[in-house]
């Protein structure tokens, strides 16, 4: 019993001083780590915001982006916080009543007010970029396009955000910013990885953008956009084909089939049994086709479906011009295109259409994809209507749109059955929509620096872990030293 007591007394771990030191040490470590974690988390929870309106030919979308407030100096990730689809058509359709173009944006702007903390409104930049619909309107009627922009600007200025302008984007900008978005979201730019090409299919225009080792901008310099991002140089090939978005391409195909002004056509790109009366004036009411308008005998024509994929491909091929090329190589319509290189992300209508058709898997051989689309096109209209509950106007066009997409890629851009698998149909990357808007905002807010920013050598998690481990280690060393010194301090005078 007494030996046990002696041992207990000699063992420093049983002394109150040691216990107190241990408790204080543990509390110190817990406090240190807690302060580290809380200090950093409080900062990371504050955000800055930016709003971009994509005024497209078919409709307008509003996107809110957010990024950590203290990291806008180039290291914080910008992500999409909210998306609002403006009801109705694109702003270019309001030429008769321009003020309505402005009014159409109000409900989404109100949503933006609700989604961004009020105190951040005045410092939130607000941009509007208009694309191919307004490009066509400008070609057709420049003063009408000015009126629409005025009305839109009036509405945007009426909101408490920091209005930065409403402008027409050049096709080249639309292509280049789409490419920036895809590669930014994929984290390819900071690391200088091989980039992904961008394929964007809109309603009125379509863009192709990629980096090719065989393109430095000397041939067809109009297609070159040079960037220096995070310390890496890029010369991007980009081209926007006006009138080759899927809605205008459909007009081109209908114009091709109604050249002679017939009263009825059997269109292989529409399902068997499809039967609609169309007005010539409505089909030809676009600068993409207005010069092809036939000497009309009738006001309308009957649009019948033929449901034949191969014939549909032939009709679509006829809207491309493959004969003239003054460069070393061309895609179509005499436009230069260097050899395709690397992976491609295909978004907007590429995704909507192929997703509806269940054909987004590009590991499936192209031959099989074509066969499936051919079967879909051959399905009678009555059956298609029974199987899908979506507005008939959209439903009727998927055979055309799917065939257009494959023809544009294979015949227009020169993808092959081998390179088809390098395309990925995408809608979102990490919860942000693929499209030009994010790249546009990153550029205008200088969020992508030309040079790589100085980054801390450790990530936040590694930093906290290292500090924790070091604190524990120091404490253990301290205790061990204390332990080794203990007998000296505690040796009681021995009575001999
Ligand atoms: N199926 C389907 N089609 C859509 C959807 N959203 C848009 N579309 C169609 O896809 C096409 C392209 O749409 P967007 O990418 O918004 O194109 P846009 O901005 O209006 O056109 P551009 O001005 O040429 O860029 C248009 O024909 C739209 O009608 C969708 O959610 N589902």
User: Quick one: overall form?
Assistant: elongated
| Biggest sheet layout | 6 strands, mixed
Beta fraction of the residues?
15-25%
Tell how many strands the DSSP assignment holds: 16
Please work out how many helical segments DSSP would assign. 17
Bound compounds, each kind once, are: guanosine-5'-triphosphate
Report, as a whole number of angstroms, the end-to-end distance.
22 Å
Low-confidence stretches: none
Average pLDDT number: 91
Evaluate the radius of gyration.
32 Å
Q: Based on the structure given, which CATH architecture of the domain at 246-425 is correct?
A: 2-Layer Sandwich
And the CATH topology of the domain at 246-425? Nucleotidyltransferase, domain 5
Major β-sheet strand ordering: 8-9-7-6-13-14
**How much helical structure, as a percent, in the residues?**
40-55%
**Mind telling me the CATH superfamily name of the domain at 246-425?**
Exopolyphosphatase. Domain 2
Give the class-level CATH name of the domain at 246-425. Alpha Beta
Helix and strand composition category: alpha/beta
Protein name: Ectonucleoside triphosphate diphosphohydrolase 1
GO molecular function: apyrase activity; ATP binding; GDP phosphatase activity; ribonucleoside triphosphate phosphatase activity; UDP phosphatase activity
Cofactor: Ca(2+); Mg(2+)
Keywords: ATP-binding, Calcium, Disulfide bond, Glycoprotein, Hydrolase, Magnesium, Membrane, Nucleotide-binding, Transmembrane, Transmembrane helix
Could you please describe the fold and organization of this structure?
Its main location: membrane. The chain has 496 residues and is an alpha/beta fold. Among the domains are: 2-44 and 458-490; 246-425, Nucleotidyltransferase, domain 5. Helix content is 42%, strand content 19%. The protein contains 17 helices and 16 strands. It has helices spanning 2-10, 16-44, 98-103, 106-115, 132-140, 142-157, 171-185, 246-257, 280-283, 309-317, 349-356, 366-378, 381-387, 392-395, 398-412, 436-444, 460-490, and strands at 47-55, 60-68, 79-85, 125-130, 162-168, 197-201, 205-211, 224-229, 232-242, 264-267, 275-279, 300-305, 344-348, 423-425, 428-429, 432-433. Strands 8-9-7-6-13-14 form a six-stranded mixed β-sheet. A five-stranded mixed β-sheet has the order 3-2-1-4-5, sandwiched between helices. Strands 10-12-11 form a three-stranded mixed β-sheet. Helix 5 crosses helix 6 (142-157) and helix 7 crosses helix 16 (436-444). It is elongated, with a radius of gyration of 32 Å. The model has no long low-confidence stretch (mean pLDDT 91). Bound molecules: guanosine-5'-triphosphate. Guanosine-5'-triphosphate binds next to helix 5, helix 8 and helix 11.
């Amino acid at each position: 019993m007494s030996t046990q007591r002696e041992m207990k007394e000699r063992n420093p771990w049983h002394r109150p001083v040691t216990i107190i030191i241990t408790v204080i040490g543990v509390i110190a470590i817990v406090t240190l780590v807690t302060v580290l974690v809380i200090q950093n988390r409080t900062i990371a929870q504050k955000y800055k915001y930016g709003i971009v309106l994509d005024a497209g030919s078919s409709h307008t979308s509003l996107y809110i982006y957010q990024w950590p407030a203290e990291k806008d100096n180039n290291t914080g990730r910008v992500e999409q916080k909210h998306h609002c689809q403006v009801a109705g058509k694109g702003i270019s359709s309001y030429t008769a009543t321009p003020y309505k173009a402005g009014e159409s944006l109000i409900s989404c702007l109100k949503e933006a007010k609700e989604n961004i903390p009020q105190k951040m409104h005045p410092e939130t930049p607000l941009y509007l970029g208009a694309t191919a619909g307004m490009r066509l309107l400008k070609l057709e009627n420049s003063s009408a396009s000015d009126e629409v922009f005025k009305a839109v600007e009036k509405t945007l200025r009426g909101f408490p955000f920091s209005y930065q302008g409403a402008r027409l984007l050049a096709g080249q900008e639309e292509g280049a910013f789409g490419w920036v978005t895809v590669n930014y979201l994929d984290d390819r730019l900071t690391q200088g990885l091989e980039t992904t090409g961008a394929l964007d299919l809109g309603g009125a225009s379509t863009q192709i953008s990629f980096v090719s080792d065989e393109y430095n901008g000397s041939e067809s310099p109009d297609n070159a956009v040079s960037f220096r991002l995070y310390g890496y140089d890029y010369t991007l090939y980009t081209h926007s084909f006006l009138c080759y978005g899927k809605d205008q391409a459909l007009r081109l195909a209908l114009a091709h089939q109604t050249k002679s002004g017939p009263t009825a056509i059997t269109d292989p790109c529409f399902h068997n049994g499809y039967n609609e009366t169309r007005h010539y004036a409505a089909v030809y009411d676009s600068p993409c086709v207005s010069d092809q308008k036939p000497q009309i005998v009738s006001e309308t024509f009957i649009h019948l479906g033929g449901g034949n994929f191969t014939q549909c491909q032939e009709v679509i091929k006829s809207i491309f011009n493959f004969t003239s090329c003054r460069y070393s190589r061309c895609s179509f319509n005499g436009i230069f295109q260097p050899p395709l290189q690397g992976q491609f992300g295909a978004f907007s209508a590429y995704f909507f259409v192929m997703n509806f058709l269940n054909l987004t898997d590009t590991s499936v051989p192209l031959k099989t994809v074509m066969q499936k689309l051919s079967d879909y096109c051959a399905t009678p209209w009555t059956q298609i209507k029974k199987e899908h509950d979506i507005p008939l106007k959209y439903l009727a066009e998927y055979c055309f749109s799917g065939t257009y997409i494959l023809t544009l890629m294979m015949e227009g851009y020169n993808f092959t059955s081998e390179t088809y698998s390098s395309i990925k149909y995408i809608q979102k990357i990490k919860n942000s929509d693929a499209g030009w808007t994010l790249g546009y905002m990153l550029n205008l807010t200088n969020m992508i620096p030309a040079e790589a920013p100085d980054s801390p050598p450790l990530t936040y998690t590694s930093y906290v872990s290292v500090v924790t481990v070091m604190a524990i280690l120091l404490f253990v060393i301290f205790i061990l030293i204390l332990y080794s010194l203990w007998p000296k301090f505690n040796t009681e005078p021995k009575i001999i």
